[in-house]
Amino acid sequence: MVEGKRGGRARKATEKVRVFDASTRAELRKRKLDALEADNWEEEKPTEEDGEYLEEEEDEIVAVGAAKRARKKKAKRDVWNATQKCKSLQEILDEEQYLRYPSWVPNFLSIAAAPSRYPPRRFCSVSGLEAKYKCPVTGEYLATLDAFETHRETRLKGLV
Question: Which UniProt keywords apply (predicted)?
């Protein structure tokens, strides 16, 4: 069998595309997960400075000493919140020192589930749907071609 001459255009196009190796892909994935962990967004709790909160209390009769007590409670709460730190699961497990517990005591490490016998499900990094496609550069999974376009415009902007 004689192979026909392949077009040079396809080869030139693929040479321009930079494909990341497994270690670079793992580093990119780790950076994204670290960014997600660092983003500790939570809804704001109503405080005494909020206008709605003040309007509700204006209707009630307030005792003379109640304002001082509220300020002290708020100050204590702020100090306590400042001392608290968001910890990862691994940090919590390390602090508990489960290795010192007797073997019959159930803990997070002893009740861990076995790995699944089914292949891992892949989800789109843009839409969160089940992925059908894979980015040839970063290896991220994508659900639709529209998601691939978004991925190309946003996430590949500085990489390629």
Answer: Metal-binding, Zinc, Zinc-finger
- On whether the CB atoms of residues 127 and 144 are closer than 8 A, the answer is yes
Across the chain, the runs of DSSP E, i.e. the strands, are: 133-134, 141-142
Asked if residue 60 lies in contact with residue 70, where contact means CB atoms within 8 angstroms, the answer is no
Instruction: Quickly state the pLDDT bin for 1 (edges 50, 70, 90).
Output: low
* 133 Cβ neighbours under 8 A, 6+ residues apart: 141, 142, 143, 144, 145, 148
pLDDT band, very low/low/confident/very high, at 61 (cuts 50, 70, 90): low
Residue 25, both tokens: 């892909």
**131-158 as b/e: b if 16+ CB within 10 A:** bebebebbbbbbbeeebbebbeeebeee
